[in-house]
Design a protein that fits this description.
- It is a single chain.
- This protein has 165 residues and is mainly alpha-helical.
- The chain has helices at 3-12, 14-36, 72-92, 116-129, 135-142, 148-157, 159-164; strands at residues 46-49, 52-54.
- Strands 1-2 form a two-stranded antiparallel sheet.
- The longest helix has 23 residues, at 14-36.
Length: 165
């Protein structure tokens, strides 16, 4: 196999390879956390403040009983959400044999958004960038802590907005 055919194979299978890579990273992260939480797996301890220690740098020991919160699944989902949306768009456009090639248009996910703040972010994308935002775009701006005027200005100052003008 020469370099050109390897490059062509990687280009052709870029999306499945990215998804496989994301799954591998999630699996390794889960494995690392599982091993780190095993008692006695390491002599290293980390300070958690007020003189207490923990065997892992990310553990949380509740003071009033109960269980600790593990955000691994949420972190991994948020990290790969843009790739998943891209895959969904890609595979929804692939024709399936035996079905009509022109599917009925489906309403955009933005049409079902009812929160006024998120609707304004969607409107800013449509008016300033000329495109629909992805869910992760709207989630990022919505959770940024910025007010709507700042979000409007920052979207307008983005490289994408400058290129769209």
């Amino acid at each position: 196999m020469n370099l050109a055919s390897l490059r062509a194979g990687l280009t052709k299978n870029k999306t499945p390879l990215m998804a496989l890579g994301a799954v591998a990273v999630a699996g390794l992260a889960w494995r690392a956390r599982s091993q780190a939480k095993t008692p006695g797996s390491s002599g290293t301890t980390y300070s958690t403040g007020a003189g207490s220690t923990s065997p892992t740098p990310y553990s949380y020991a509740p003071t009033s009983g109960g269980t600790s919160y593990d955000s691994t699944a949420s972190d991994v989902y948020n990290a790969i959400q843009p790739e998943l949306e891209q895959l969904q768009r890609l595979y929804s456009s692939v024709p399936v044999p035996g079905t009509p090639t022109t599917p009925a248009p489906s309403p955009s996910w933005t049409a079902s958004e009812t929160d006024p703040r998120r609707q304004q972010i969607i409107t800013d994308y449509q008016s300033q960038l000329g495109r629909e935002p992805t869910r992760s775009d709207v989630n990022w701006w919505d959770n940024s802590g910025k007010n709507l005027a700042d979000i409007h200005a920052l979207i307008g100052q983005s490289a994408e907005a400058q290129a769209a003008k």
